Amino acid sequence: MNSFFPNAQLFTTIFNDLAKGDGASFWEACSDVIVWRTVGTTSWSGEFAGKQTIDEEIFRPLNRALVERATVATRIIDGGDVIVVQAKGNNLARDGQRYDNDYVFVIHFQDAKIIRYEEYADTPLMARVLPDRGVAKTCQKPP
User: How many structural domains compose the chain?
Assistant: First the structure.
């Protein structure tokens, strides 16, 4: 991992921070105009633009749907301004089902900021285990 270019090294740090429950370095690395795209046809799929929209449409609903949430990078392919991250989720849904998705993230950088984040995952697993995103957005997270 010592031979990574700065963007891949940054993402290694981000994943290490996320594993500790700290998302600050991720948000700091994002451009204000970041676009997140989750490929597929589930209620979780789509393209979301801007930090606030991504937080409201993806991260907050996921935090309501999952009681345990962790994703570990298993491989980073360094392409300079585009990196590819293979990752494995270790997640538990509120109803007790495992949501251990396999991911590939294609992350685009411009001027040392993330401008596009593409998520490829097992969308049938998303549809089977996660509640509809619209429902997850409105549910109150239990204490």
Answer: 1
**pLDDT digits over 97-134, tens only?**
999 999 999 999 999 899 999 999 999 999 999 999 98
Domain that holds residue 70: 6-129
Predicted TM-score (pTM) of this structure: 0.88
Nearest-angstrom CA–CA distance, 71 and 67: 13
Which pair of tokens denotes residue 68?
């345990």
- With contact defined as beta carbons under 8 Å apart, do 136 and 52 qualify? no
Backbone dihedral angles phi then psi of residue 50, each to the nearest 5 degrees = 95, 145
On whether the CB atoms of residues 88 and 4 are closer than 8 A, the answer is: no
* Residue 27: CATH number of its domain: 3.10.450.50
* Closest CA relative to residue 122, chosen from 56, 26, 15, 44: 44
Tokens of 88: 């494995």
Own/partner contacts of 18-23, CB < 8 Å, gap of 24 or more, are 18/70, 18/71, 19/70, 19/72, 23/59
Residue 136 lies in a domain: no
